[in-house]
Input
Amino acid sequence: MTIAIIDYGVGNLASVKKAMDHIDADSTITSDPKVVSHAEKIVLPGVGHFSATSSLDRSGLRDAVSESIKRGVPFLGICVGMQWMIDSSQEASGVRGLGLWPGECERFPASVKSPHVGWNQLELRNGSSRLLREISSGSFVYFTHSFRLPLLKTTVAECEYGGRFSAVVEQDNLFGVQFHPEKSGPIGLQLLRNFCSL
Output
């Protein structure tokens, strides 16, 4: 089973690959749309500014991801990779997201320190989540971000920091996490195992 970890110039690629190796998942880091198109699963990491996702358009990776998603290939967006899954972000208003769900990423309010960095708790919503199997509400995971996804119909876990926001989204073959599973210890590894076993 090949899992494509997309390299578009940003992201904790080495950390994500190391986590995948730790759970014995067959993964490869690639910037080649053809490799992405033939992958059985796709992971899009992301760290930094939302504008970096514009390189996915120039490289042909956006089309490769979109077509794979339409075929039912499981897709996991991490941090900025998750934010790219909706329409847009206030961080880079001229850059369009994948538009899988309507919405815009917003900056944290001035009432809290931004970026939101460190460990925070997940609050699981009612219902069964394949990505969160064997992960309990109240589990701590590691965040580092300045913008956040609003609560959506597809939100399966949320977090509180200057208001509530989406920590995990899930629908059919689509999965997104705002935190970094590769930096979240046993909980993050369990989440990656769950994704790899889909």
